[in-house]
């Protein structure tokens, strides 16, 4: 079978570990809250009603595509496009192209930042390989003005950060919802982990300093992985509603998810 991402790819290594995917989730939750197009997610009512579920589903779609056969992955991308077209039809307006690019760019950035935080620095070739996967997702969705290489993406990413983020009433409301759904302790862990992977401009807009209590906690967690205690630690830190899904995030880099049955 031909796969959307070949076996042994660094992209499979990044997206095959729950630790990395959870940091992608954490960082994206901060940037989502600042995005100027977040009102589109409020339009359906799904984001404020279940912010964790909505963000988690976005991350899970990307992960499903990474581990699927080529045809299944293309069908998943087309399904994402169809869902958004339906929302556009209901609202009678079109989601701006830059908003789609923002989400794609988020997934690229937080994939790199999370893996480098937890594992090691990526080579330039590995970063290009990661970029290529998400570039193919974007072109399948029909997105325009996509950068064509990782160096070009770095420039586009910075422009998007400068132009497409704003601290608004939606930002404040989303963080209230995060706290409501996570509880005080887990909300604290979320905010501290965001400091470790979010770009400086995001931290500045959210008024969070660069020091994070998650740094020493992360060192202890890495020790826990060596001692095989990471599962117990994650069980304490993560919402009970998502423990089953989070346990299923750990996949061997050469494995696959068996099509789209989980979507």
Termini separation: 20 Å
Helix/sheet category: mainly alpha
Total count of domains: 1
- Taken as a percent bin, the fraction of beta residues is under 5%
Percentage of residues in helical conformation? over 70%
Structure, explained:
The protein is mainly α and 263 residues long. It has one domain (10-165, 178-247). 70% of the residues lie in helices and 0% in strands. The protein contains 15 helices and no strands. α2 (18-34) crosses α5, α2 crosses α11 and α10 (169-182) crosses α11 (184-197). The longest helix has 22 residues, at 70-91. It starts with 9 loop residues before the first helix and ends in a 16-residue tail after the last helix.
Characteristics of this structure?
disordered C terminus; 263 residues; mainly alpha; 15 helices
Topology:
Elements: H1 10-15, H2 18-34, H3 39-43, H4 46-49, H5 51-67, H6 70-91, H7 97-118, H8 124-140, H9 150-163, H10 169-182, H11 184-197, H12 200-206, H13 214-226, H14 230-237, H15 243-247
Helix pairs in contact: 2-5, 2-7, 2-11, 5-6, 7-8, 10-11
In short:
The protein is mainly α and 263 residues long.
